[in-house]
Amino acid sequence: MVECCCCSATLAIGTVIVAFVGYKFICSKRKDAPKLNVENWKKDVVYLFQFPRITTAPNLSPFCLKIESMLRVYNIKHEIIETMRKRGSNGQLPFIELNGKQIADSQLIDVVLREHFNIPSLPSKRDEGFARAIDRMLNGNTFGGIIYFKVLKRFDGFTDVILREMSRQPSFLIPFLQTVFRLLVGKRLDLRTRTLVGDFSTEEFRMLLKKDFDALVDILGDRKFLFGNEITPTDCSLFGQLVTVYNVSYDNEVQSILRKDYKPLLDYIDRFRQQVFPNDFIDYK
Q1: Which residues contact residue 190 at a Cβ distance below 8 angstroms, ignoring those fewer than 6 apart?
Q2: Would you say domain 125-276 falls under CATH 1.20.1050?
Q3: What superfamily does domain 15-116 belong to in CATH?
Q4: Nearby residues of 130 by Cβ (< 8 Å), 6 or more positions away
């Protein structure tokens, strides 16, 4: 009887935890007056709030990884605060706090970092226009296609990483919690993805994602990075999108697509990784 009660209590606690994690991961709402988390802040130090590290990459979120990459590339002093609970004023991660102010959303963070730390512009306005267009493609259509194959088609693998690595749930609870997670956020996430990209079939998602990859290969050409030999903020966006699906610890179709047809993008990942994150990856295969 005692063991039965303990088991029931554990399941109940686990259900509450996964409900909280699922809600915070997908469904958090905007806050009009965010409370500052770091009260004794240091001048010009960026406090980056993001999801906890995973085993095979610095982050599961492409947007968190983009901002951390920018901070490293441009040698900006920063501290990382890993959290599954806190959220920025837009209800999402990442967000930063800088000189007593909170900035949420990776797009806005990008703008603030460029302006505050004088990140160099590209040589021409044409290049800046290209960079903006590439970034919007990556964070819109490309991101939606990746989410379809990374999350919706591999929901158990995705939630296993969240529950086991990021939330540190006990192994025996994972299958049960995955079911709860699917019930809580599965349909909502599917709707968000189809709203972002379109209500497509698997084959159509695959075709559109490959069109984006084709464009990226064409833009990259024989350059080391998108605009030459130096990493730009747009490279940080591209790296974040690619590596957070390619380097996850479960098989997904985007990995297969990249291995089969897009060696230039895999070489690009390796170049960026060795220059910016030489010690932060564990190859799971």
Answers
A1: 152
A2: yes
A3: Glutaredoxin (3.40.30.10)
A4: 219
CB 122 within 8 A of CB 227: yes
Q: Boundaries of CATH 1.20.1050 in the chain?
A: 125-276
CATH 3.40.30.10 in the chain, residue ranges: 15-116
Helices and strands: H and E segment counts in the chain: 12, 4
Tell me the DSSP string of 41-104. Answer: PPTT-EEEEEPPP-SSSS-S-HHHHHHHHHHHHTT--EEEEE-SS---TTS-S-EEEETTEEEE
Tell me: the pLDDT tens digits for 180-220?
988 888 888 888 888 888 889 999 999 999 999 999 999 99
* Reported pTM: 0.87
Give the CA count within 13 Å in the CB-facing half-sphere of 212. 26
**HSE of 13, CA atoms in CB hemisphere, 13 A:** 9
Give dist(CA 198, CA 192) in Å, integer: 10
